[in-house]
Amino acid sequence: MDALRKTFEQELKDLEEQVMAMGITVMEMLKRAMQAYKKEDGKLIEEVIKLDDTVDKYNLEIETHCLQLLATQQPMARDLRFIASTMRIISDIERMGDYTVDVAKFARRLIGLPKLSFTNSIPEMGDLVMQMLKETLEALSTKDLGLIVKMIEDDNRVDAALRDMFDKVLSEIERNPKAAREAIYLLLMARYLERVADHITNVGERVHYSETGEMKELHA
Amino acid sequence: MKKNKIEVKDLDLFYGDFHALKDVKVGIEEKVITSIIGPSGCGKSTLLRVLNRMNDLVEGIKITGSVKIDGQDVYSPNCDLVALRKQVGMVFQRPNPFPLSIYDNVIYGPRVHGEKDRDRLNALAEESLRSVLLFDELKDHLRDSALTLSLEQQQRLCIARLLAVCPEVILLDEPCSALDPYSTLKIEELLQTLKRDYTILIVTHNMQQAARASDFTFYMLLGEMIEYGETKQVFTSPQDPRTEEYITGRFG
Fold it and tell me: Which residues of B touch A5 (CB under 8 A)?
């Protein structure tokens, strides 16, 4: 292999590391958002919002890097699939960051409000979503597509958790209309977490495509 | 699905002891552009030359298997070589116009094949030059020497010279390697118009050219056909890891 292609290989590795770093940042945001919710910690919420700027910065940097590689290396086959997938993946990760900020902002609104009986459902969903993100980032780095299959199963559990939350919120409001505000906040948080999960499945689809060349919806 | 214009089966070719083509099997559809890619010495040009028997005079050559064009075996003893070369024309790496006028270059083939009618020759010259988009540019200079043309125009002229004998298959062996990027694109555009009427095979070292200008791609390595498929598939998701290595520039 000539020197130019070695440099290109290194560039692709660097690109992958950048994407990993971006994904890990969103993971950290999710973790802090959940802690903030549990501990009613306003400082952690501010940290989540601040970390989103880092995610946005990664998004622009990585996109620029991808465009430069497309222009200068004219990649083909696996390399082309990887770069094209990366461009889609970062836009999904960027959206995950935005939704996590929404989750954190609702955690802030809930500070000081009475706790409902199903208040623990949110961190449970948060754990599932973090698990999904971890599996997907691991699949990106290890190319183990079995992890994507597992992630899709977890996504089904997240969808079920959202439906469950909807039922709980509905019956809570019927039973105790005064708790409507807290209940709706919880429902919206669950909805945003479910949206994060959807974007994780998109990333999983791109990792699958990048590795196999097969373009398909993995989402059930 | 279009019918196959060219059918190559179990083709082996030896130059003395050197096994240059190994068990090549491929069907080429009519009126499409097929690019043949692969590292130097892999047998691309040899394969191209087999199709109109340009290798016949190479010393020590031995060919087995079958090469059929429209169902006729080109290596059968009944094959009319003159008719074959008329049916299957070839364009080379460097433009090779004859040191004659532009007009005489274009009608060289029909004249050799016995056409004497002046009106018919004029019509053929105009039609062929129009097909390669040279007529409007050169209609007032048809008596000038072909050697005064730019390289790109010379290459177009060589294609026009082929078209004048009404071929069905056009073989191009790295036809753009002597041309600048703009002229290269113009030749590629020309090929896109020509494929409406002709079956085109192009040997190229330029991966981008194969990717943008051909419908099918054929990857060869050490005389073997490694992969053959639709260009858009070969360049995004090649099936064989050896093709992947080559087109991503990690090998060859």
Answer: 248-250
